[in-house]
């Protein structure tokens, strides 16, 4: 009899307990690519007495390259979560999503990629409940404005929210607003939108990388004194760089081509 045929529901339950997942998260994991192979490997290690706490992460299925398959990955300790270990990354690209509700069960996510879907600025409510979110990718969706990601959390929980990277390229954004929840951003992508001016980012005092390629900009006004290391603005109609560049004293990369 093969090992595959010997696997049982009790094996799966033991695997769930070993990974310390609740049933809802475990059921989501079962839909991930590589789950069965990971369960087989776990069964083998169990029989050989090799299963230890340190091998927990290695037992998880690897993330898959199939973009159209929703997947959880990067299981490990969550910073600022008082010893909690959970899935920290979620990806669901090209899956025709109209909102971000699929992330709701996974409250410890730090990195979310929902690019190439059909999500607009009104469909991001579930992202606002992710207290530990640090990066979000909503490239090629249906955003008409920068989404409001102000956390829907208790006052005591808000300080843990620290979004540092946001990718909103190739949407339909014409003005930059709702930046209060983005004030700790280090990376902001707004390529391929409909921006005609740079306004609304003056409060981003930690911003290091800004991408504004392929918009409709005619000047660089609005960048004064930002701590930028990289500025990418090719594919615009810039005729006057003004005095903005003189104040970007940390700038290392400038793409105006």
Order of helices and strands: HHHHEEEEEEEEE
Major beta sheet, specifics?
9 strands, mixed
The termini sit apart by 64 Å
Number of helices: 4
Helix/strand/pairing category? alpha/beta
Strand content: 5-15%
* Sequence stretches where pLDDT stays below 50 over 5 or more residues: 1-6, 50-62, 155-160
- Large-scale geometry: elongated
Keywords:
257 residues, alpha/beta, nine-stranded mixed sheet, 4 helices, 14% helix
Account of the protein in words:
- The chain has about 260 residues and is α/β, with parallel strands linked by helices.
- The chain is about 15% helix and about 15% strand.
- It is built from 4 helices and 9 strands.
- It has helices at about 5, 10-20, 25-30, 35-50; strands at about 70-75, 85-90, 110-115, 135, 165, 185-190, 210, 230, 255.
- The protein has a 9-stranded mixed beta sheet, with no helix packed on it.
- The protein starts with a helix and ends with a strand.
- The model is unreliable at about 1-5, about 50-60 and about 155-160 (pLDDT under 50).
Summarize the structure.
The chain has 257 residues and is an alpha/beta fold. The protein has helices at 3-6, 9-19, 23-30, 35-48; strands at 71-77, 85-91, 111-113, 135-137, 165-167, 187-189, 209-211, 230-232, 253-255.
SSE map:
Blueprint: H1 3-6, H2 9-19, H3 23-30, H4 35-48, E1 71-77, E2 85-91, E3 111-113, E4 135-137, E5 165-167, E6 187-189, E7 209-211, E8 230-232, E9 253-255
